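ok here's DUF86 domain-containing protein, seq below lol
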Amino acid sequence: MTRSFFNLRWTPARDHRRSAWSGSKEDGSLAKIIPDLPRIVGLRNRLIHGYDSVDPELVWDVTKNKIPPLRKQLDLALSQPGT
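and the structure came out like this:
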């Protein structure tokens, strides 16, 4: 993803559907796989509910620097039996 593509697509989120992780809150299984889950959920909540208070620079930084390692972590966890 390029910065110009990001800028073209950047709009405050307006979709209030329940997130995919909500079903795993009860047993904590997702939190075991993703230790940063509370921070991820916090960012999601800020994006969904913060509207004008969301800093596009922060979102860009997360997109470029935090999501790729998270994806590797998830791929590894999902490739192991029992996950």
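fwiw DSSP finds four helices and no strands in the chain. kinda neat tbh
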